[in-house]
Amino acid sequence: MGIGKGFGGIMSDFFGTKNVSVLSLCLSIPFLLFGNNNAVLSLFGLTLFSMTMAPTLGILVSKFKDMPGLSFGITTVGLFVGTFPIFFFKPNSFFQKSIITTVLTLLAAFCFYKCANNKKGSDKNVA
Fold it and tell me: Of 78, 75, 55, 72, nearest to 126 (Cα)?
């Protein structure tokens, strides 16, 4: 979903990291929940959800100024670790999937809300 990542970076520069990240995560929830049988809804939800990748990398790079490779590595490990629960817990009902998706997405939005600010420009994303 490179489109979402690209839009996320561009929109963060114009509207602020916190605004774009929190809004895109919250807006992605209904599309992720109800896009199970509809490819267009699902792709739109994934695009919104992936808009946070560029701001995440931007925040980490600005925190670890001398180690951009480590910043990218941290995001990669985060994605890898994020797949672990599916190996140990398989939600069977729509209700279980909905609760897990909603709670984890809102938790991510809260993290962006606390860690990012709304200063425009790629070098000013971090609080």
Answer: 55
Coil vs helix vs strand at 93: coil
Tens digits of residue pLDDT in 98-117: 888 899 889 988 888 887 76
Q: What is the three-class DSSP state of 116?
A: strand
| Both tokens assigned to 47 | 């695009």
Q: Which two tokens stand for residue 22?
A: 């929190």
Domain boundaries, the chain: 2-119
Spatial distance between the Cα atoms of 45 and 115, rounded to a whole number of angstroms: 23
**What's the pTM value of the predicted model, to 2 decimals?**
0.78
At residue 66, φ and ψ (nearest 5 deg) are -90, 0
CA distance 65 to 34: 40
